[in-house]
Design a protein that fits this description.
Length: 372
């Protein structure tokens, strides 16, 4: 995976879209402040510093680390992948924050990757997942100026980041705080809960960490197999848009590509989205494009919509809602349109200036798509 100037989109067949960012040399206007290691006992200070050094070399830092980049951070942690991942998650949550007189952290609005859009709780969550490819996908929580249930959790953001990049298997997930019940349920859709290792700081604050299979922290789980679903959120049959479908722009086609790799086994209504932003750091730069795809869950409520997932990825990338220009949504057709009212309400609250393009398309039946 390459790293290029601005977030851009490369459509890779039916495998979807990759976010690509480019090194732009040291960014002198903004720099990452490293939180003293003594403030986060479970974090390896050398790995934390290695992450800071890596991200400081970019105008818009990557939201995906290539295997070699992660290995550099892991080497700083003495080869301990769990500690390196946890250091990355804490970097996303806490780097550059300050502490008030009461000892509470004040989230910063500094350079990405960062959990800066915590507009209700002021509680930053950083997460990252290690894929079987060796790449690491970053994530952060994102709170909307809207009902609390619209919030995207850091773990959801990281998994969605992996999904839009076409990663098929996740080996480990790290988060700066113990994952909540909803996130544990969200993760069950990734496959065998014995094979996903979840890493977080222990509550005793003595520097120890908890690293356990998802099955251990979510016993007696309800999952996709209870609803007769054998595929997983990242490894499932691709949808295929009918050849005669009207996708009138490149952004529409990119959103269509996201729909084709979306995971919607319960509603049977996959959705893909593309958010188009002005680059707030350079008025002459090309638009910044962020993808999203739906990720459904057997328990229904933990499901992540394409637009919410894209918003969270944009927030992680340091993009502000005020700079959102257009939203392209492509949804499988059927009565009624499931998402239009929710998307319009979300944009009215978050980015009323953005223009919404909502398209519905027919899909090739699954049996036909798999034999075509």
């Amino acid at each position: 995976m390459g790293i290029y100037a601005h977030v851009a989109i490369v459509v890779v067949g039916l495998l979807g879209v990759k976010l690509l960012l480019e090194p732009a040399g040291p960014h002198s206007e903004q720099s990452h402040s490293v939180v003293p290691a003594t403030e986060i006992p479970c974090v390896d200070s050398a790995a934390f510093a290695a992450a800071a050094a890596l991200f400081s070399g970019y105008k818009r830092p990557p939201v995906v680390l290539e295997p070699a980049q992660f290995q550099t951070i892991a080497a700083a942690a003495g080869g301990d992948q769990d500690r390196a991942l946890l250091s990355l998650a804490n970097f996303i949550a806490y780097s550059g924050t300050s502490v008030d007189s009461g000892g509470h952290r004040i989230p910063r609005h500094g350079p990405p990757p960062a959990a800066t859009h915590t507009v209700i709780s002021a509680y930053p969550v950083g997460a990252c997942v290690l894929g079987a490819s060796g790449s690491v996908y970053l994530g952060a929580n994102y709170e909307f100026y809207s009902p609390l249930e619209m919030t995207v959790h850091g773990e959801q953001c990281a998994v969605h980041n992996a999904a839009v990049h076409g990663e098929k298997v996740l080996l480990k997930l790290a988060v700066n705080a113990a994952p909540c019940g909803m996130c544990r349920q969200f993760l069950i859709e990734l496959g065998d809960p014995q094979k996903l290792r979840v890493v977080f700081c222990s509550e005793d604050h003595n520097g120890s960490i908890i690293a356990a299979p998802l099955a251990t922290i979510l016993p007696n789980s309800f999952g996709p197999e209870d609803l007769g679903q054998k595929a997983t959120a990242l490894n499932h049959s691709q949808h295929r848009i009918a050849p005669n479908a009207s996708l009138p722009s490149e952004y529409a086609r990119q959103a269509g590509s996201m729909l084709e790799q979306a995971y919607s086994p319960y509603t049977k209504r996959p959705v893909g989205a593309i958010l188009v932003y002005r680059d707030g750091t350079d008025s002459n730069a090309a638009p910044v494009v962020i993808p999203g795809q739906s990720l459904e869950n057997a328990a229904y409520n933990p499901s992540l919509s394409a637009v919410r997932g894209a918003f969270a990825l944009a927030g992680l990338s340091g993009l502000e809602p005020a700079n959102l220009i257009e939203v392209w949504v492509v949804e499988a057709n059927g009565p009624p349109e499931l998402h239009s009212d929710l998307i319009e309400a979300l944009l009215l609250l978050e980015a009323p200036q953005a223009k919404l393009h909502h398209l519905t398309v027919a899909l090739v039946p699954v049996a036909d798509a798999e034999t075509a």
